[in-house]
Specification:
single chain, mainly alpha, Arc Repressor Mutant, subunit A, 3-stranded antiparallel beta sheet, disordered C terminus
Length: 145
Amino acid sequence: MSNEFTQQLEAHHKMLVEEITRREQKLVVEGEELRVLQLKLESVIELMKAEGIAPATAHRHFLEVAHDHLLQHGRMHYVELTRELRDAGVFIPGVKPEANLLAHMSRDARFTKVDRGVYEVDHGNGKRKHGKREAGAKTKQKESM
């Protein structure tokens, strides 16, 4: 390899490392800002509940609301479901609410994955994957403690 080409590669490497570092730092800051906003939203919901004007879904866990939403509207992709729940005022915590909802649904026996990213309410038709826990079931680790 030529000396000039090697220098170009090293310069490009340095630039990429700096860009990745800059973006990682930006994500940390944005993640902290998101968490502050989530805490503010939780506080506002609590104040609304105290005043008797809380959103209809504020007192329920987001997974319960997702279950009811799927019962009413049928199967849906988890990203679309997250959007519809948030549009309805449902608070889904986390930096990536879609991923949080997906993680909860994939572990809950009330939901069945029917296609890539698409879930519906399990109506007891046997399509549920093995290994899913029943809603509210404890893990073996927790039981042994």
